[in-house]
């Protein structure tokens, strides 16, 4: 073979390699849609941001799709395919046909999600994040879940997550080796805080704390992590496997002539804060309306048995004072109200077990401002 013939063949091979692009296995992105889809969550649906991610993946002509569903032991792959738009075996380039094919794929994926129904008896978002971490290559993940983890050390009813803050939860996860390695992964959370009966609805402050918790945990693993504000709600759940519910503080009923009412700090304040939340206003308005003219009002702040005793007393006093100020704005005379803060010196219930560990449900009962009328 002559030198000129060898050069010609080499040039042809180089041109072919440069023109084949993704058909020759050029590295692309995996769009991974992961959903928990348990019985106390709405049926999964594509949010606006999830549709944008899917459309971008389709239009890149370099992406693959994988859809996974929480299972009893590990996530189950329910759909996996190449997202490149084709006519037969060839990439489709006609704009009109591409738009039609892309629209069909969006509808198809939405249909797969709407049929999502896990048979798992636990909601396990952390395992889905671990699956994302273990997926090789570049990954954009859309995670559709309420985020109310019910199993493992990060089960939210064990964490006291609605009081200790997202940073403490992340530190705990890191100390236990539970932070997934999400470097090089983009994670879009959808549906955090969206629930279905029998799970009680989360208040806006609790939902914000839940979103913050998962974003910080995800970012601690090196991921590019965002939360979609659109609800990922596609109707009632299809799953019929019961899943544990997470206790959610509810506003107490205010009787027509109240004698004593415990106002949960969860509804009144953020973690370690004595600033009234907007959600406190309706509760205080009902209490002010039910306070008879001439009544004497006693406000006593309590906390869970966490942190230094003096700090707990001061926080509980500040919270009782904030409730006083709220009632005064609503027409209760200042002179009729007395304020005290006892921290955890006078617990309403015991919130430590025999080993000294905090009992989150009991701690929640102790975080309160007790209102007594006489």
TrEMBL record:
Lineage top rank: taxon = Bacteria
Per its UniProt record, what InterPro entries does this chain match? Bact_OuterMem_StrucFunc, OmpA-like, OmpA-like_sf
GO cellular component term, pick one: membrane
List the Pfam families hit by this protein, alphabetically: OmpA
The record, for SUPFAM superfamilies, names:
OmpA-like
Domain (OmpA-like) ranges? 256-374
Q: Where is the signal peptide?
A: 1-24
Keyword vocabulary terms for this entry: Membrane, Signal
Which PROSITE patterns does the record match to this protein?
OMPA_2, PROKAR_LIPOPROTEIN
Q: Does the keyword Signal apply?
A: yes
The protein's name in its UniProt record: Outer membrane protein OmpA
């Amino acid at each position: 073979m002559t030198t000129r013939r060898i050069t010609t063949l080499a040039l042809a091979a180089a041109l072919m390699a440069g023109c084949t692009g993704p058909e020759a296995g050029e590295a692309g992105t995996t769009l991974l849609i992961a959903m928990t889809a348990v019985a106390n969550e709405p049926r999964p649906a594509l949010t606006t941001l999830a549709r944008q991610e899917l459309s971008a993946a389709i239009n890149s002509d370099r992406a693959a799709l994988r859809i996974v569903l929480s299972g009893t032991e590990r996530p189950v792959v329910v759909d996996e395919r190449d997202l490149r738009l084709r006519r037969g075996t060839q990439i489709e380039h006609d704009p009109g046909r591409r738009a039609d094919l892309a629209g069909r794929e969006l509808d198809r994926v939405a249909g797969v999600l709407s049929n999502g129904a896990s048979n798992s008896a636990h909601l396990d978002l952390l395992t889905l994040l671990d699956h994302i971490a273990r997926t090789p290559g570049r990954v954009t993940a859309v995670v559709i879940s309420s985020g109310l983890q019910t199993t493992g050390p990060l089960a939210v009813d064990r964490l006291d997550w609605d009081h200790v803050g997202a940073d403490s939860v992340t530190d705990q996860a890191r100390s236990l080796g539970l932070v997934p390695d999400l470097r090089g992964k983009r994670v879009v959370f959808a549906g955090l805080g969206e629930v279905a009966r029998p799970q009680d609805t989360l208040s806006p402050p609790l939902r914000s704390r839940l979103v913050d918790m998962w974003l910080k945990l995800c970012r601690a693993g090196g991921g590019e992590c965002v939360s979609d504000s659109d609800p990922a709600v596609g109707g009632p759940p299809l799953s019929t496997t019961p899943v544990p519910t997470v206790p959610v503080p509810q506003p107490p009923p205010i009787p027509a002539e109240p004698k004593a009412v415990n106002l949960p700090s969860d509804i009144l304040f953020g973690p370690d804060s004595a600033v009234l939340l907007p959600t406190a206003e309706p509760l205080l308005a009902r209490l002010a309306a039910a306070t008879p003219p001439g009544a004497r009002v006693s406000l006593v702040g309590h906390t869970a048995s966490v942190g230094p005793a003096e700090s707990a007393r001061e926080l509980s006093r500040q919270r009782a004072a904030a409730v006083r100020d709220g009632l005064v704005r609503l027409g209760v005379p200042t002179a009729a109200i007395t304020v005290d803060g006892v921290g955890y010196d006078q617990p309403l219930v015991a919130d430590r077990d025999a080993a000294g560990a905090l009992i989150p449900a009991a701690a929640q009962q102790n975080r309160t401002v007790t209102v007594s009328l006489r």
